[in-house]
Amino acid sequence: MERDSATGWHGWQGNPDDLWPPFGDASRLAVPARPDRRADARRDQLAEAASRRGQDPGRRDPGQDRGRPRLSREEIVDAAIAIADAEGAEALSMRRIAQVLRAGTMSLYWHVTSKEHLLDLMRDMLMAEVEVPDPTGDWQSDLRTFAMNYRRMLRRHLWLMDFVGGRPPLGPTTLLNFEAMLATLAVLPIDSDVQLRILESVNTYVSGAVLREAQELRAHQAERQAEAEYQGDIPAEREAWRNRLDATGLFPRFVRFLDLGIDPDAPDTIDARFEFGLDCLLSGIAARLSR
User: Fold this and answer.
1) Tell me, what CATH number does 267's domain have?
2) How far apart are CA 147 and CA 207, in angstroms?
3) 211 and 158 share one domain
């Protein structure tokens, strides 16, 4: 749609601000999203991480700084994941982990060289939650199962989406999963580089879809909060917005979506939308290979 600064779009003369939906523009949604209430339950993991050591998660024993620590790397990574699940990745620090484990901060560095190293260890450990199916001979079905399991893991740990896009840590768990996924493609008469491209495509789709889902969840949460605080007639405002769009004559297809009551980001269709896109991807890969 081309825009003329003097007359609007395609000669339509009107205020573009009128085309924003109720509760859909930044000025009216300047309400911070409330924290995920499930975080309260996840915080229990912090206490569990400390109780496994018979300790109070809010206290530290200074004496434990002396000598080689009794901590294990697995304990440190477990505690870090619990903190990120409960409070977000931004809450991660060596000091916070040490508080949970009631250890000296410097004692963590016997096992973890830096925060970046810790994040790599966390991401690799979480890949153990992604079940990779044994090869069945049906590579599309196997890849679909893997993608569904990968998505479930990412949605359990949405803070991971802050780190998508970079090179994944090639830790032992990640490599085991990669090896298993390559085995599912062994039935195909394709070169190794093509196998890699297929797996990259599936991983990219899953991470991109979950990133979009996380954004949708935040947007719906903010919208619900804004609506709860609004004193006006919400249905009337939505109808007025629909009529303004219709009056421009520029959005006939979108207005039809509104009239049909179709919400492209409806929470109750989130799984179906993911599976539709995944099936399209796998079918497209199959069609490409058949050529």
Assistant:
1) 1.10.357.10
2) 10
3) yes
Structure confidence by residue, pLDDT tens digits, 75-113: 999 999 999 999 988 999 999 999 999 988 898 888 998
Q: Out of 112, 141, 171, pick the residue that ends a domain.
A: 112
Note the pLDDT of residue 131: 93
pLDDT at 242 over 80: yes
Residues 47 and 108 occupy one common structural domain: yes
Say whether both 100 and 43 belong to one domain.
yes
* Alpha-carbon distances, residue 26 vs 93, 208, 223, 291 (angstroms): 32, 23, 11, 47
User: Does residue 184 share a domain with residue 138?
Assistant: yes
Tens-place pLDDT, residues 137-169: 999 999 999 999 999 999 999 999 888 766 667
Q: Looking at the predicted structure, is the pLDDT value of residue 135 above 90?
A: yes
Is residue 25 situated within a structural domain? Answer: no
Q: Residue 257: what are its φ and ψ, rounded to 5°? A: -60, -45
Domain that holds residue 106: 38-112
Q: What are phi and psi of 8, to 5 degrees?
A: 90, -150
